[in-house]
Amino acid sequence: xxxxxxxxxxxxxxxxxxxxxxxxxxxxxxxxxxxxxxxxxxxxxxxxxxxxxxxxxxxxxxxxxxxxxxxxxxxxxxxxxxxxxxxxxxxxxxxxxxxxxxxxxxxxxxxxxxxxxxxxxxxxxxxxxxxxxxxxxxxxxxxxxxxxxxxxxxxxxxxxxxxxxxxxxxxxxxxx
Amino acid sequence: xxxxxxxxxxxxxxxxxxxxxxxxxxxxxxxxxxxxxxxxxxxxxxxxxxxxxxxxxxxxxxxxxxxxxxxxxxxxxxxxxxxxxxxxxxxxxxxxxxxxxxxxxxxxxxxxxxxxxxxxxxxxxxxxxxxxxxxxxxxxxxxxxxxxxxxxxxxxxxxxxxxxxxxxxxxxxxxxxxxxxxxxxxxxxxxxxxxxxxxxxxxxxxxxxxxxxxxxxxxxxxxxxxxxxxxxxxxxxxxxxxxxxxxxxxxxxxxxxxxx
Amino acid sequence: xxxxxxxxxxxxxxxxxxxxxxxxxxxxxxxxxxxxxxxxxxxxxxxxxxxxxxxxxxxxxxxxxxxxxxxxxxxxxx
Lengths: 176, 260, 78
Known about the structure:
The structure holds three protein chains of three kinds.
Chain A: H1 8-13, H2 25-156, H3 163-175
Chain B: H1 39-57, H2 68-88, H3 96-113, H4 125-147, H5 165-204, H6 207-210, H7 212-256
Chain C: H1 5-41, H2 43-77
Helix pairs in contact in C: 1-2
Organism (chain C): Roseovarius aestuarii
GO molecular function (chain C): lipid binding; proton-transporting ATP synthase activity, rotational mechanism
InterPro entries (chain C): ATP_synth_csu_bac/chlpt, ATP_synth_F0_csu, ATP_synth_F0_csu_sf, ATPase_proteolipid_c-like_dom, F/V-ATP_Csub_sf
């Protein structure tokens, strides 16, 4: 059928369908075999072992990393535990110190209070004594002044005041 | 005969949907001999270079955290490895390099063939038939070496009723021998069909240079169609490589475990 | 129009052969549709069966490709 071919290409291949042109088969098959052999050797000698190694290595790395992560996690937990323990210890220590200090302060305070009380009591007593003395002194002065005043008054009124009787009179009046 | 369609009477549109598949010598005009350097040679060499670039140079850093190229290489490796392991079973893994070779060759030449003005080596029945026959022969040999005459049990379906078994056996034998045919023609046909359809639409694209009235409608439509078919072809390029590889695995499984 | 009856027959045959591709399209659609309806009912089992789906697609598609090949042969090779 393909006799009235128009294109030069058709004349070269000899048939309408290049796939059915038997003269090119040997060429294609030869180069196909060469190609496949080359690809096979490249793949089986270089590429596939390399990719397999890379994949295996990655798997190994991932496994290692997971193990390392587990390790680190355990370490972190340990550290946390230690930290908590230290914290608790420190807290207990602090409580102890606080209690001790409180006790010390209380003792000191009590002592100071007692001392102050004693001092205050002593000072009060002293004050009382001084007041009594002053009162005594004042009474004496009053007697003296009264005696003098009485003698003067008596003298001024023209009488002669006997010192003894004045004193007796003053003493009697003061006792009232 | 397709070239007859380019007669001048429909205004100069040129249809050469099959010309892209012609095998021509690169450096001479002579006939295509067995060792002639042809465009087949060139595109197969490019395929090899692309595979080397991807799987060898791309992984040369061997980094634990992969870069872009290395990711693709590892993805391809893992994809094919898992496919072989899942379909052919654990003892099929030792054939993994062969299936990887086939898969990489097909997928890379399919994709290279999608480049404009490229030659698609996998669109030739000669190429796919060699691969399919290689798989067929290898699988048959493996089956007989591993199971001896027991491999013929593949055709004798003991689950079926006894009177039916000879008929089923006949059907099984026929389907067994049709395997390489469908295996090879599926790949070549898909590639050829897709590229021919793109070419047909491409031939409509310059319509606007011939007749503005018709071309104003036809040209954008055909360009749109080329884009759509091209997208489909990208998908098909991968799926056909996948199907070829997975069918190889299925045949391999039949050879390794014929009684399943 | 030049040509002869044989050529006309070849072209008609090529066109008729192309209807086979429609059958393949129906088949592939059937495979994928049923896979999808099954997968949506039991999504956990779907992942393992994608390979099976592709094998099914490949087998049904192969027949469409055969009809396409017949069309091409009629067009170009007969």
